[in-house]
Every structure is written in C-alpha cells, then in structure tokens.
Amino acid sequence: xxxxxxxxRRLLVGRPYDTERLNRRPLGRxxxxxxxxxxxxxxxxxxxxxxxxxxxxxGTVALALGPEIGVAVVAVMLLIVVSYRVSIRAYPEGGDYxxxxxxxxxxxxxxxxxxMMLDFVFTVAVSMAAMAHYLTAAVPALGGGETAVAVAGxxxxxxxxxxxxxxxRVTPAALAYVFLALLFGMIVAGLVQDVTGTLGPATSAGVExxxxxxxxxxxxxxxxxVLVLRAFSSGSALATGVEVPASNVGAMAKPRVRLARxxxxxMGLTAGASTIGVMYLADRTGVVFVLDPAGLQAVGGGPxxxxxxxxxxxxxxxxxxxxHGGILAGALILMVAVxxxxxxxxxxxxxxxxxxxxxxxxxxxxxxxxxxxxxxxTNGVVxxxxxxxxxxxxxxxxxxxxxxxxxxxxxLSFTVSQLGMVRHWSRHLANxxxxxxxxxxxxxxxxxxxxxxxxxxxxxxxxxxxxxxxxWVALLAIAAMxxxxxxxxxxxxxxxxxxxxxxxxxxxxxxxxxxxxILVMSVQRPTLRALAYARASRPSSxxxxxxxxxxxxxxxxxxxxxxxxxxxxxxxxxxxYREMSEPLIRHLRALRRTSPRDLVVVYIPEYxxxxxxxxxxxxxxxxxxxxxxxxxxxxxxxxxxxxxxxxRRGAANSPRTGTSLPPTxxxxxxVESGVQGNGSSADQADRP
Length: 688
Fold this sequence. Notes:
single chain, membrane, 61% helix
C-alpha cells in the first residue's frame, strides 16, 4: 500500500529536486519582462470590460466616455510605475511588505501583508474566471460551464506549482510575447481600418444597454460624476500586478536594479498603450458590455435575438478586426486565455513566497516555511488554491463580481507602501550631506509623495464607490487576517519566552529523582525489552502497571508475570469503564503529588508492523495514550519499539538482528499492536 501511494505521489508530483536546484540562473532582460509582467498585462483582459459595464448603467451615451476614462486609468497606472521605480533604488530586495514594516512599523507591514495575500487570492480567482470566459468565446461549446472551467484552471495551476517549472522549449516568456504580438497587431490593424473607413462593427453594436433607473433622467451633474468615478474605480484593476517586478529584483540578472527599473517602465508603457488602443477601438466599433445580458435591448427598442452571446471586449474586437471566426482572431482569444493562466501562475509563485516571509517573521504558521519535494512552498500553494476555489465557486466565476472585491486591497498596499517610502526619504534626507545629493533625495521623495496622494485618492474613490458592491467584505477580510496573524505572532512570542533559559530554571533542569513506569499490556517480547531499557536507565524507582480492562485477561497476565519472577513490582489499575488512559493518568498524578519535583518516565512497548495494509489490522491505543501523556507536566514518554521480521524484510531487506530476550516462555504468542513501517505509532492494546 505504501509503495502504491508513493508511486501515485511521484506520478503527480514528480521526483524530488536537490536543494542545489534553488540556485537558478537569474533572468535576463527579455525573459524577466514577460515573466514579471504577465500579471499586469493580463489586466487588459478585464479592465476595459469593467469600465464599459459600469458606463453601460448610463445607457449608450455614457459609453462614449470610455476612451477618456481609459486614459485616466493609464495615467494613474504609469504614475504608480514611476513611484515603484524610485522605491526599487532604496529597497532592491524589498517589496511593499518590507518597505511598510521597515518604515512604519509591524502593524503597517502586517496590514500590507494581509492585503497582498488577499490580492494574490483574487488574482488567481479573477484570472481563472476571465480565462473561462475567453475559452468560452473561442469554444462556444463550453458555454454555461465557465465555473467548471475556472475550477479546473485553479486545480491545474496548483498542481503545476507543486511540480515546479518545466524545461520545455515553449516557455511562459515566449507565450507572453506571442500575446503581445497578436494584441498590438490587432490594434494596428484596427487603427488602419479606422483611418481607411473599413473598420466593421462589433457583434454587440446591434444592441444597447437599458439605463439604470438612477440615471434614467439623463447624465448631468452629480449623476455623471458618480458614474465616471465608478467606471474609473472599476478600470483601476489595470494597476493590479505592477508591483511584481519590484518584488522580484533578486531573480533578475545584474545590474539588478537597473534591469528591474527598465522592466517596470516597459511593462507600464506596453500595458498603457494597449489599454488606450483597446478602449479607442471599442468605442469606434460600438462594443457593448454589461453585467447581465438580460439588460440589453435591440437598437431602437425591442428584444435582443435569442442566439445573442456576450463575449469579453477583447474577443469582440478580435472578431470585428481580424475576422469573425478567423484564425488570427481565434489565436488572439486563445492567447488571452493563456496569458491569464500565466498571471495565475505568477500569483501561485508570489503568494507562497510572501506567506513564507510572514511565517519567518512569526505571523503565520511555520509549516508555510517548509519546501516540498520540488522545492516549492507546497503548503502555501495548497492554501492559495483552496481560497481561490472558494471564491470561484461562491461567485460562479463572474469576473465583474470578483473584481468588485479586488482593487481595494491593491490600492491599500500601494498607499501604505508609498507612505513608507516618503518616511524613508525624509529620514535619509536628514543624514545626506551635499547639495546635489540632498536635491536627488528631495526629488525621489516628491515622486513618492505624489504617488502617495494619487493612490490614496484612488483608494478612497474605490472604497466609496464600491463599498456597497462588496469593498467592505475585502476590508473586513484584511482586518480579520491582521487580527489572526497578530494572535499567531503573540502565541509564538509567548512560547519562545517560556522556552528561554533563565537562572532559576537552569537550577531546576535536573530532577531530584526519576521514577520509571512501564506500561504492560501483555507479557511478550516488547514488554520485556521495555523492562530491560527501563532498568538500564537506572531510575530511582521502577514499577510496572497494567490497566484492568478485562479481569480474566488480567489474571492470566499476572500469572505469567509471577512465573517469570521479574524483579519489578507490578500494579493493577482498576478501569470499571474499560478506559485505558484515565486510570493511568490518575496514577501518574498521584505519583507527582507525593514528589512534585521528581520526573516520571513512562515506557511504552510497541512494535513495527510491515506494509501499510497490516497497520489497518491493529488498533491505535498507544498513540492515543502518548497524546494524552504529552499534556501531563513532569511526565515523559519513552517509546520502545520492537521491529518485526516482516518490517525488517520489507523495509531494509536485512537479516533479523539478535536480541537479549529469549524467545521462550508463555509470553511468546502473537502481538496485537505496533508501529507502522512509516514510523507512525500503532498500539499494543489487544490481549494475547
């Protein structure tokens, strides 16, 4: 059984990697750009959709504001990129969490860490939901199964992350470049068609949105301002992922800081140019995108055709510009789906690394520090996958609903990070000599100050305009995560404080006396070995105890004990309710009350069974007893294993080793307990 399970594990996970494999070759310019920009570039797949579906609340007239709002969103995104280019100079190995913690204190770092972890979860959920919709646009037969496709995407990404990166010729960098080539090729072709008058309408140009009652009286004044702000906050999803290069400077080739700054600039310019191009072409082709297609009507009134299917904005543009059903259109739609998968994979790399850093600082369980067979943080990958799956299922893979909870955490971390950088430069300025050097510091501080003001304003806009649409849920989740992580750190600090050595505790390190207690459940070889080991430790006193679960069996055991003439007194503990642990614990507590400073060592005989299926034939009494005894102060547990012939033959294929105990006497019958061959404990509870 164990070999079968191990074979299945190796089939799913692969062979273990040596630790030396961690020393990977750093990424050069042309590889680092697509690898660390996939998250930001993928926002182009859904940010224009969010702008248009929000403007659709005001009717067809409001959709004309799309290009202007797109320019405003791009401007904010580029400003954030410039701010991070300055931050990289001061914290090349940092990131938002390190910057906030170093300059604003642990609570600020904890808040940013919680917000970033939540953002990575939403990145996976949003990316897989959007991927499912683009796959549906490319393969209409998948229509209605978006949730299942998104769930499958999360599972595949999790397994790929656990297995580790492959070494195939088709790399993520190459796929990202193919996406960029097709996307900009479509934009250029669309602009040429627009200039020559050959640009055709989108499939949704024949429908129009039904205005929301709140805007039914027309767009003017406060109503227009609210709609524009809501559309701007929705489009701010474009800024998600721009911080990834700043958090991965150490993975780039030298000179790392210069390379990271150039990667961020190229990422921002390509994302900005493509977004403006998409928003312009969406306006020129008459693209309509709404949250609920039931809220559409034919142009001029009347119902929409029953066979109408709403596709994402990029899919509509690809069909309108490159030919509906054409090879290039289908290739672009598929590459958008591939890029979304790459963005999800990037989050599966960033989330476990951030979780491991938080765990190293004591804010998360230390299990998140452990690397798996393939050198990845397996526990972090599993945690992210479960959280993302929950979001995908709860929100039924609706990208628009997921994005409503997404951006607030992003801009919260941006704002706190920029505030940390302003404080960093202000401290640095006080210790910087020279006029030119001080002016350079002032310039950098000004850039981060502008970034702070803009990101704070955007965060406020997002919070106000989206509070009723779910932003409060994200804030509540961040607050809950901060509270939980602070409690975890408090626990670790309390444990460390209690375990620290002090002068008074050093004096009590050695007990005055040691009492040995041998738990007897049958008079067999494991029991005699436990007796021998207990005597070899030379305790101050020694006794054997047997719990009377069955009087006839106990009488036979006592008779066998007397026949052997063992020089150890044995005590029978009554158990009227046939319970094993409680009588033993009462007996040990009585010993402790008479001599509180003495140490009691309980020797438990057990044996090792062979294969996994054999362990199913034995109970787990000793494992439960040991778990109870570990909570008793002043009591230690010593397991005395007896390796069976089948275990030695199956595990090491070695000849049976000798023992000082003779294989004769009434106690040499079969044993009914043990320890599994994998090292876990089974029990010696059944009577011979």
